[in-house]
Design brief:
This protein is mainly α. Helices cover 60% and strands 0% of the residues. It has one domain: DNA Binding (I), subunit A (Orthogonal Bundle).
Length: 89
């Protein structure tokens, strides 16, 4: 297939990016911090979230990575269930 035959992928053809542990933490912390300090700058918010992530113990980080793998597996299974039979191989 040459470039002239290619077209943009549809939503169904794209692969969803997995959610990483840090992103889960980031989303949760962002909401929490913004409720407490609605006027915080984006830079300070980012620094606060990053420092919070760095302060976690290895056990906490393991839990975030475990959550990431569970989410990835769940999304993969859900996506595979919605595929036409001929694509499930």
């Amino acid at each position: 297939m040459d470039l002239s035959e290619t077209s943009a992928l549809t939503y169904e053809e794209t692969v969803e990016r997995p959610v990483y542990g840090y992103l889960l933490h980031n989303d949760e912390q962002r909401l929490e911090i913004l409720e407490k300090c609605p006027n915080i700058s984006a830079k300070e918010l980012s620094i606060t979230i990053t420092n919070s992530w760095k302060s976690f113990s290895e056990v906490c980080l393991f839990i975030f990575y475990f959550m990431f793998h569970i989410l990835t597996l769940t999304l993969f299974r859900k996506r595979k269930m919605n595929m036409p039979k001929e694509q499930k191989n």
